[in-house]
Write a structure and sequence with these properties.
The chain is mostly helical. The chain is built from 18 helices and no strands. α3 runs antiparallel to α4, α8 packs antiparallel against α9 and α14 runs antiparallel to α15. The longest helix has 38 residues. It is globular and about 65 Å long.
């Protein structure tokens, strides 16, 4: 069930009606849990079993960890949680990837191995809800969280439908306290939730699908080389598309949760205004980057074991971050590139970070543009399905091709460049603010006009109900 579908509109209307009926808080939470299972089952009902397994594994591991004494037993229980969650993730998301690489390696060694046909369906959202349930076990293991007493609250935390399939990745300490008492949903909160849903759908349906998907597809699907202007425009189109698509989903999720009285964490904070790559990852997919920081980077030692070990930890963390996104070496290269960016930035800051010119407005603007250019280079590997395709696009971008052809229409070219420039300017203008703060300071009539314009654009856009990009991860 997609946010950008009439089915979801009907589903959400029914959920809102039930949520505002004079039922007990326990009944309302049960209604939300059942609605969340229905929301997930709309894709593939049998796969809901995996969601139950993940829920039960960490529920019982969490309770056992709270009672366990002795480091050996606690480590064993943590290992059970890791095997249950990462085992499912490994089989369903990386099974074919590992098998294909095994066949490739045996072939290189002169052996022929033909595995039996093995068709695995990737359960939607498995990367998100496994990481979410793992935070519960990790935090209990680290004695930062007490196990929740109500299984209903815990099951709702794991399954809450607004962020179930594509985030944000919510931690138990953020969500579970909100389940104790029924929320007092104010009129302003409800209206702000509806506004965020409209904004998220506008980003997804109008910008990502309506204007940016076609130029990105034209460049990345072209079998030959394209002229540099078209190549850069196509990559910028994808850079804008993936932001509008993913930020659009999480904006819808936050808005939907607000209408139900729940607060979800921000997942984006104007990332294309980032001054370097550390800043980029403080702004892009915030709940994943902080998850990787707290549960991977710091677990490996963080920056506590010297410069060389810190740089290695950064590379390992970004390697795993790339692999989390997809079971393909192109995603690994994307993660490794960002790891190299972070390592290079850290070394440059050590050498020039204190220079006065670094803090000037001109230097900041130049750094934002350089950061975006290098992010676009990395996006090539994220979007391309093969290294050959990525190589063609990169060679086209830097005019390293023998022959090239224009592939974008004038409209697609201008739309890609104009929208991407608009995104950059918006992010720059709002980089020290938050959306809600900016909107709250704006005149009411201006907010109403913008809201009406987004609604009209949504109505006029002939969308195809395309799935959100991050559903595949």
């Amino acid at each position: 069930m997609l946010f950008n579908s009439l089915t979801f509109v009907v589903f959400f209307a029914v959920v809102l009606i039930l949520h505002n009926m004079p039922f007990s808080w326990k009944t309302k939470k049960l209604n939300l849990l059942l609605a969340s299972y229905l929301f997930y089952a709309a894709w593939n009902p049998p796969l809901i079993v995996l969601l139950w397994i993940s829920t039960m594994a960490d529920w019982y591991c969490g309770k056992a960890l709270a009672r366990a004494e002795g480091s050996a037993k606690r480590r064993l229980l943590l290992a059970v949680s890791l095997v249950a969650n990462l085992g499912m993730l490994g089989i369903f998301k990386y099974g074919n990837f590992l098998l294909d690489n095994f066949v490739f390696l045996t072939g290189k060694l002169g052996m022929t191995y033909s595995p039996p046909e093995w068709s695995i369906i990737l359960p939607v959202g498995i990367s998100f809800y496994t990481f979410q349930t793992l935070t519960y076990t990790f935090d209990i293991y680290r004695k930062r969280l007490e196990p929740v007493k109500s299984f209903l609250d815990y099951a709702l935390y794991v399954t809450f439908f607004p962020q179930l399939v594509a985030g944000p990745i919510v931690r138990a300490a953020e969500f579970l306290p909100q389940c104790v008492e029924p929320p007092k949903i104010t009129r302003n909160q409800f209206v702000w939730g509806l506004y965020l849903i409209t904004l998220g759908l506008f980003q997804k349906v109008v910008l990502a699908d309506g204007f940016l998907s076609d130029p990105a597809e034209a460049v990345f699907s072209h079998a030959g080389f394209v002229v540099p202007l078209d190549a850069w425009a196509g990559v910028m189109a994808f850079s804008g598309q993936i932001f509008c698509d993913f930020a659009g989903y999480t904006t819808c999720a936050i808005g939907t949760a607000l209408c139900l009285g729940f607060m979800l964490p921000d997942n984006f904070r104007f990332p294309y205004a980032a001054l370097g790559f550390s800043d980029f990852w403080r702004r892009w997919h915030i709940t994943l980057s902080t998850w990787l920081r707290d549960y991977v980077y710091i677990s490996f030692g963080g920056n506590r074991r010297g410069t060389i070990r810190t740089l290695i930890n950064l590379m390992v963390t970004m390697f795993l971050g790339g692999l989390w996104h997809g079971a393909a070496w192109t995603f690994v290269v994307w993660g490794v590139l960002h790891g190299l960016y972070l390592v290079g930035e850290r070394l440059l800051k050590a050498a020039f970070g204190g220079a006065a010119w670094v803090k000037t407005l001109g230097a900041e603007i130049g750094l934002v543009l350089l950061t975006n250019a290098l992010v676009c280079v990395a996006w090539v590997f994220f979007r391309a399905t093969t290294f050959e395709g990525a190589g063609r696009v990169l060679q086209s971008m830097f005019a390293l091709m023998p022959e090239a052809a224009p592939v974008l229409t004038t409209f697609d070219l201008l739309a890609a460049l104009a929208i991407y420039a608009g995104i950059l300017l918006t992010h720059w203008f709002l980089r020290h603010s938050r959306t809600e703060n900016f909107v709250s300071r704006a005149p009411g009539w201006a907010v109403a006009i913008v809201w009406a314009a987004m609604l009209v654009a949504l109505i006029l856009t002939q969308g195809g109900g395309d799935a959100f990009i991050y559903f595949q991860f």
